[in-house]
Amino acid sequence: MIAAPDAPTPTVPILELRGVDAGYNGIGAIWDVDLAVAPGEIFALVGPNGAGKSTLISVAACLHPATSGDVLLGGQIVNGTAPRELVRRGVCVVPEGRSVFPNLTVQENLLLVTHAGVSVAEVEALAYERFPVLGTRRKQLAGTLSGGEQQMLALARSVAVDPAVLLVDELSMGLAPLVVAELYAFIAELASGGATVILVEQFARTVLGLAENAAVMSNGRIVRTGKPADVEDALEAAYLGEL
Amino acid sequence: MHNFLIYSVLGLSAGAIYAVAAGGLVLTYTTSGIFNFAQGAIGMLGAFTYWQFTYGWGWPAPLSLVIVLGVIAPLFGAALESGILRGLEQTTEAVRVVVTVAILSALVGLALWIWPPNVARPFPAFFNGDKFTIVGAAVTVHQLISMGCAVAVAIGLAVLLRRSRVGTDMRAVVDNRDLLVIYGGSPDRVSALSWALGSSLATLSGILIAPTLQLSVLPLTLLIVNAYAAAIMGRLSRLPATFVGAIVLGLAESYGVGYLSNRGDFLAGIRPAIPVMILFVVLLALPHARLRGNVGKRSRDWFPSPPVRRSAMYAAAFVVLAFVVGPHLSVANMFTVNRAIALGIVALSLIPLVGYAGQLTLCQMSFAGIGALTMAYVAPGGSPLGLVAAFVVAAVVGALVAIPALRLRGIYLALSTAAFTIVLDRWIFTQDALRIFGWRIPLFGIYSLQVPRVQMPGVSFGSDRAQLVLLSLVFSIVALAVVTIRRSRYGRVLLAMRESPAACATLGLRLTVTKMSVFALSAGIAGLGGALYGGLQTAVPADTFSFFQTLPVLLLAVVGGIGAVGGAVAGTVLLGLFEAISRIWPSTSNLIAVAPGLAGIGLVRNPGGIASDLHAAVTQFRNRRRVSAASAGSAGDEAFEVPLEWIGIDRTIRAADIAALDVALGRGPAS
Ligand SMILES: Nc1ncnc2c1ncn2[C@@H]1O[C@H](COP(=O)(O)OP(=O)(O)OP(=O)(O)O)[C@@H](O)[C@H]1O
Ligand SMILES: [Mg+2]
């Protein structure tokens, strides 16, 4: 590829949403969302229940169609692309709630990671190295793992793709603080290795401490974007229903 | 001992074939949640296709095997999945069962069309039935091949599902279809693949079994009941148990036939009933919780509750119309109309049971048959008491059938009722007579049974025209009764039971009594319809009331709209129309035979049926007129017409119903 000689120095956002609207069955859920995430950063998306965070994640990963606006991956418009394509290009979504296959073993769950275009040996080696506890439970059904172990298994998907764009929805839901800290340590490590991470959380303190940039959502719109310290007042207002 | 060996070999090879078919059934069920009632029909069609290539066109057998098993069958299965079954994802289990039953019905019609049954089609075993002897028992090469296929399929499926990524995908789809998309898999492709495989396995079993059964449509299609029983033994998910079940079935059937068929009595004809009875026993013996199946889909059906007065006016108009039009109908047309109305009464019987109560059954024509038998036995002179007796006897049998069925729902209920009807029509009905405590109750036998037409002192309903009046009168009365049920407390309880049995139980409703009573009521109505239908035909052969005769009535009633009396009327009209068309233009008769199946498949698009469509169209038309009259030019008003269903609110039970239910339960209106 030939780089344009006078390319602007600011890097192209790895993931970008431009004026995105989306909804369910003709009823809107998010409106006019603009968002740009730079490569390698940790980005926090916070806001109260029903703000539209999960919807935004789905749209960004092309799992749910945008009714208008564009989704860009590395500067390329990708709306309407099959999710499979995005997975191959490193987009890795860890959705809300259970994100492993409960009736498959740990090993079989990892086998499915190979849809991203990596070999099974590689996936297993990386996953077991990073999360040794998974290595001791290869033949166990994923549904019988503890909540924390399940999230590890879900996150293990991201170690195999490089560089990854990791979209994590409510990672900490129902987990003990110690486990959450371990998972976030892993995420920080991934990011320092070059991955881009978008974290969605209800309880914003932890992620805002971790993130380089943040956005606050309320009632289907992004009401503030900026450094974590700068969005806290907007976040408070959103939770109090003032926005 | 020698016989025992022979029977064992026969049983093992038959069991092997059932295992192949059942393996396909379990595969498709676990990967799509759809129980394929058409699996046997696919196998039958596959066997015919193979015959066509090998014997019809003289292709070498190995080549046709490759083409049929490797190309045609998988393509057919994949097309079925992507063209029809994929649309079933959001529907209720009842719609799923009806659609696969519709596919069964359409495929049977299609096969009879392409390969007319009046031509002999020899279907020799592989290697011309060459045989050799192992420890004193003769074994044919064909039998060995069958067993080899079963072993290969067992191992192949195990390796596929446990070792390969595609197989893991197949299991992942069941676990969480959306998550597989997130992982980068494509569930659609996986489903199509598993149906392709399932279709190939069905075809293989059809080809293997055809030499022992001869190439004939209905027996081949029904043979799959064996595979159903095996699959149920594997609880629809465990392949090893399924394979063991299939072998046990094959052996049981073989010993049963071997040791019973020489007897001169009732048990001699038991062969076709053995697997069905095993299926029945297995359904009942398995612990209930395991038989949950996929439930919990939101229903999209429609249960209008029309005012009785208006319904009574329609009913009266219908009888008057019959009276007036009667004299102007030709003999043939009159017979078509009469037949349709008589079957329409059977269709009406489905509405409280399948529609309101959501209990899917496939045995309604059996109850009709019992009604006809009762009429013939009780009132050979045509006394109207015969009709009463037909209702009562059928209702009692219905209640008895309901007892084992009480714990079952969805596909399991459908299967057990199919088992019941097949036992009746393949074994009992074709006997000469039933002897109980010295009484001799004549049955249809292999030819036919005389069923009288109703005679009353002073009034004879012997003529076809009088039959028309009688039938329309009975139809109207039954229709009114069904409308009344819908509006009663009982009707609301039925709907509530359909929506959530668990909620009903917690409300303190007595589900057992309710279920049995609705079965009895429905069976009674069907029995009444059957008695009249029998009288119409006068000489009635046993297959008038067979499993395959139930299908068009059920399908057209559901297509009409099983939740409403109007649906049964629409179904009746369709029945009559189809028959009239095929009589007037005989060249269309094959197409007409496929039509109910095709119409049933159309339910994928519109699970509510014709009646609900018509109703929606009329309502929309009225609203539009009202809107344009009220505010000419303000098009924005239409925005208010978003049906509640679109935004996820279920209107099946309306607020008034709920309030009435509360009152009925003595809890007073909810505050
Ligand atoms: N599958 C769906 N069908 C219809 N509406 C939906 C669906 N999913 C979400 N919504 C609606 O879209 C809006 C945004 O929901 P979303 O799940 O994106 O919010 P959220 O910010 O993730 O909330 P939470 O923090 O509770 O997870 C809500 O009003 C919700 O009711
Ligand atoms: Mg959410």
Q: Which spans of chain B of ≥5 residues are poorly predicted at pLDDT below 50?
A: 289-298, 632-656, 664-671
Q: How many separate domains make up the residues of chain B?
A: 3
Percentage of residues in DSSP E strands of chain A: 25-35%
Question: Which ranges of chain A are low-confidence, i.e. pLDDT below 50, for 5 or more consecutive residues?
Answer: none
**Mean pLDDT across all residues of chain B, rounded?**
83
CATH class of the largest domain in chain B: Mainly Alpha
Describe the secondary-structure layout.
The complex is a heterodimer of chains A (243) and B (671).
Chain A: E1 15-24, E2 27-37, E3 42-46, H1 53-60, E4 68-73, E5 76-77, H2 83-88, E6 91-94, H3 106-112, H4 120-130, H5 132-135, H6 147-160, E7 165-169, H7 177-192, E8 196-201, H8 204-210, E9 213-218, E10 221-226, H9 228-239
Chain B: H1 2-32, H2 39-56, H3 61-83, H4 93-114, E1 131-134, E2 137-140, H5 141-163, H6 165-175, H7 177-183, H8 187-213, H9 217-222, H10 225-233, H11 239-260, H12 273-285, H13 308-325, H14 331-356, H15 364-378, H16 385-405, H17 410-428, E3 433-436, E4 439-442, E5 449-450, E6 455-456, E7 459-460, H18 464-487, H19 489-499, H20 501-506, H21 511-537, E8 539-540, H22 547-561, H23 565-584, H24 589-601, H25 609-630, H26 655-664
Antiparallel strand pairs in B: 1-2, 3-4, 5-8, 6-7
What's this model, at a glance?
The complex is a heterodimer of chains A (243) and B (671). Chain A has 243 residues and is an alpha/beta fold.
What does this structure look like?
The complex is a heterodimer of chains A (243) and B (671). Chain A contains nine helices and ten strands. Chain A has helices at 53-60, 83-88, 106-112, 120-130, 132-135, 147-160, 177-192, 204-210, 228-239; strands spanning 15-24, 27-37, 42-46, 68-73, 76-77, 91-94, 165-169, 196-201, 213-218, 221-226. Chain A has a six-stranded mixed sheet with strand order 6-7-8-3-9-10, sandwiched between helices. Chain A has a four-stranded antiparallel sheet with strand order 2-1-4-5, with helices on one face. The termini of chain A are far apart. Chain B has three domains: 2-285, ABC transporter involved in vitamin B12 uptake, BtuC (Orthogonal Bundle); 308-546, no CATH class; 614-664, no CATH class. Chain B is built from 26 helices and eight strands. In chain B, strand 6 and strand 7 form a beta hairpin. In chain B, helix 1 runs parallel beside helix 5 and helix 1 (2-32) runs antiparallel to helix 8. The longest helix of chain B is centred in the first third of the chain and has 31 residues, at 2-32. At the A-B interface, helix 2 and helix 3 of A face helix 6 and helix 7 of B. Residues 53-54, 96, 169 of chain A line the site of magnesium ion.
